[in-house]
Amino acid sequence: MAVKIRLMRLGARGQPFYRLVVADSRSPRTGRYIEAIGYYNPTTEPSTIKVDEDKALGWLRKGARPSDAARVLLMRSGVLAKWETRKKPAQT
């Protein structure tokens, strides 16, 4: 089973709202997911991004692969930067 971090679209037509979820790669976009780890609202000015850092880092540590859109959101929120620094071995 391949686990992905990706966006799940919610909201009315013309008013998108996305939930950042951890899901099996075989499940549909708005289908079943394992855990919600944040949200993204592009309709506000500026757009709102909220990510639960601990949950996101935990899933990255377990091997979850972010989609391209989720990777951008994780970069903007600073989670990927923390993941990269934790992943590198300590230099002496």
Search tags:
92 residues; alpha+beta; S16 Ribosomal Protein, Chain: A; 3 helices; 5 strands; flat
Write the layout of secondary structure elements.
Layout: E1 3-10, E2 17-24, E3 35-41, E4 48-51, H1 53-61, E5 65-66, H2 68-77, H3 79-87
Parallel strand pairs: 1-5
Antiparallel strand pairs: 1-2, 2-3, 3-4
Helix pairs in contact: 1-3
Descriptive account of the structure:
There is one protein chain. By secondary structure, this protein is an alpha+beta fold. The protein has a single domain (3-87), classed as Ribosomal protein S16 (S16 Ribosomal Protein, Chain: A). Helix content is 30%, strand content 32%. The protein has three helices and five strands, in the order E-E-E-E-H-E-H-H. It has a five-stranded mixed sheet with strand order 4-3-2-1-5. Strand 3 (35-41) and strand 4 (48-51) form a beta hairpin. Helix 1 (53-61) crosses helix 3 (79-87). The radius of gyration is 14 Å and the shape is flat. It starts with a strand and ends in a 5-residue tail after the last helix.
| Biggest sheet, spatial arrangement of strands | 4-3-2-1-5
What is the count of structural domains?
Answer: 1
Name the CATH superfamily classification.
Ribosomal protein S16
pLDDT under 50 segments (min length 5)? none
Give the SSE string. Answer: EEEEHEHH
Summarize the structure.
The chain is α+β, with helices and mostly antiparallel strands and 92 residues long. Helices cover 30% and strands 32% of the residues.
